[in-house]
Amino acid sequence: MIFENRTVLITGAAVGIGRACALQFAKNGANVVLVDYNSETLNSIEKEIKEITDSCLSFVCDVTDNDNVLNVVEKSINYFGKIDILVNNAGLWRKYVPFNKMDIDVWKQFIDVNVMGTVYFTKAVIDNMIENNYGRIINLASVAGVYGNANMAAYSATKGAVISFTKALAKEVAEKGITVNAVSPGTVSPAEQKNIDYVESNELTYSGRSGSTRENADLICFLASDNAAYINGQNIQIDGCRKKI
Question: From the candidates 37, 147, 155, 198, which is the catalytic residue?
Answer without folding.
Answer: 155
